Amino acid sequence: MLIDSHAHLDSDRYADDREAMLARAFEAGVGAVLAIGIGEQADGMDRALEICRQFNGKPNLPRLYASAGIYPHNTHEIDDAVQAKLNSLLAEPEVIACGEIGLDYFHEGALHPVQREGLIRQLEIAAAHKRPILIHCRPKDAGAPSDRSSSLGWKDGTTDAWDDLFEILEAHWRQTGLGGVMHCFSGGWEQARHSLDLGFLLSFAGNLTYPKAQPLRDVAARLPLDGVLVETDAPWLAPVPHRGKRNEPAWVGLTARILAEALGVGEEEIASATTKNFFRLFRLGPDVGN
After folding, report:
1. Could you give the CA distance from residue 138 to residue 134 in angstroms, rounded to a whole number?
2. What is the CATH number of the domain that holds 251?
3. Is residue 73, in this structure, part of any structural domain at all?
4. pLDDT at position 285, please?
5. Helix (H, G, I), strand (E, B) or coil at 283
6. Phi, psi angles (nearest 5°) of residue 35
7. Residues 246, 243, 143, CA angle at the centre, nearest 5°?
8. N or C: which terminus of the chain has fewer CB atoms within 10 Å of its end residue's CB?
9. At residue 127, what are phi and psi to the nearest 5 degrees?
10. Cis peptide bond prior to 139, omega within 30° of 0
11. CA dihedral in degrees (104, 112, 133, 171; nearest 10)?
């Protein structure tokens, strides 16, 4: 069984075939999916939970979990009402994580102080609910990825967002012991090492399969098996050979295969390890049907 640890199931791109898309994932051996609750704006972060409740319990579909959080570019929307909504969502049993949250410095005019303050406020709410966090980190000169969710920080080694992120996590998160996930990890070895030291798992998406991603595969090859996850970041970052198409959880196995090759293990072993890592981080039982 595989787990897609990060998919935007609330995307309008699934509006016409969401249940069929989930059925394809189940047929492909995906036993669970973490649906990311950030919405297009902060007030839409409850949509992932709604989707979980719509489909959980139906036969021949993956078990769905949800997250809730305010995406870096939406942190200027944080007010008392948004904070109250996040606080309420993180109290729901299906909402197992806060995210994706973090820092994104790629676009000109990004409000770095607003993003940093927004991140800290969300860390406080997540800690109060004992929820691990899902981190998005994208440096200023990270290249030109095809969607907003990719960090691709390996392009030229720029680490401005990473440096600020680790400063915040050291001051406001390490002491919680809750850890989290470095979503769509694309940093270098130093960022990987620091993330592991903070209790984070590194999750790899479809960009791991791209021809120019050898530096990222080299980093993945150095990681411990108990420190990794796989994800799609669907509907973005479709892996080879589907690159450029709408991504979906059924294709997470293609990324898992490349990660297995990088680590020198079999596909069954990477599936077992990433599933165990997911259950351990989020303190879930081994039966995803519960």
Report:
1. 13
2. 3.20.20.140
3. yes
4. 77
5. coil
6. -85, 125
7. 105
8. C
9. -65, -40
10. no
11. 140
- Picking from 232, 236, 233, 202, the residue whose alpha carbon sits closest to that of residue 219 is 202
Q: Which domain holds residue 120?
A: 2-282
Q: How high does pLDDT run on average in the chain?
A: 93
Helix (H) or strand (E) holding 117: helix 112-128
Is 266 part of any domain? yes
Q: Quick one: CA dihedral 187, 192, 198, 199, positive or negative?
A: positive
Whether 95 is covered by a domain: the verdict is yes
Q: Is residue 205 part of a domain?
A: yes
pLDDT, tens only, 109-153: 778 999 999 999 999 999 999 999 999 999 987 654 433 344 444
Structural domain count, the chain: 1
Residues 6 or more apart from 171 whose CB is under 8 A from it? Answer: none
Q: Return the residue matching tokens 């939970």.
A: 49
Q: What is the mean pLDDT of residues 24-53?
A: 97
